[in-house]
Amino acid sequence: TKCFEDYMFRIRDILIVILFIPFALFIVCVCAIFIKVESSGPIIFRSERLGINKRIFSIYKLRTMTSDAPLVPTSNYLVTSYITRVGGFLRRYSLDELPQLLNVLKGDMSIIGPRPCLQSEKELVSMRQELGIFSVLPGLTGLAQVKGGDYLTVKNKLRYEYFYSIHRCLPLDMEIALLTLAVITRVNKFRK
């Protein structure tokens, strides 16, 4: 049954990406112009992340920081001094994540799941391994993101990710998707 469930999640992901690709491409093209006008460097930022079963893959994002920014988690306080004005806007509305629809299409990610982490996040990686969280595909958004995201402690983030990994189902995904929309549009405050 797990194989069948995984198949259903994969079909759902592909259908969503196909549905949103035209809209996403238009938004990405508009954002790309503003990124290029404001600062030099590539429009798309690539970063190696850990995916399912700790497999390394390249994640795609619209660049929101200056090209000399250090590669650290977004929760790191150093990040803020490198974020561009356009980048701040893109992050506020999660538009920088749109290129990850390609990651979903490639099968590196799902629409819903724990956010993929950097190899350098040693504590998070170790605990995810211990709790079996690497057994599910990482996602564009997830339960931890709608419950506080980068404002959560590692322990609380893991609590939500673990809950998701053992209770993963389409109704829960639908709830997370709706909460994601609420968080992005600021209808709902982060709930911890």
What distinguishing features does this structure have?
single chain; 192 residues; mainly alpha; two-stranded antiparallel sheet; two-stranded parallel ribbon; 7 helices; disordered C terminus
Structure, explained:
The protein is mostly helical and 192 residues long. It has helices spanning 2-38, 85-92, 100-106, 122-131, 143-146, 154-167, 170-184, and strands at residues 44-50, 56-62, 110-112, 139-141. The protein has seven helices and four strands. The strands form two sheets. It has a two-stranded antiparallel ribbon with strand order 1-2. A hairpin with a 5-residue loop joins β1 (44-50) and β2 (56-62). α4 (122-131) runs parallel beside α6 (154-167). The longest helix is centred in the N-terminal third of the chain and has 37 residues, at 2-38. The model is unreliable at 187-192 (pLDDT under 50).
Write the layout of secondary structure elements.
Blueprint: H1 2-38, E1 44-50, E2 56-62, H2 85-92, H3 100-106, E3 110-112, H4 122-131, E4 139-141, H5 143-146, H6 154-167, H7 170-184
Parallel strand pairs: 3-4
Antiparallel strand pairs: 1-2
Helix pairs in contact: 1-2, 1-3, 4-6
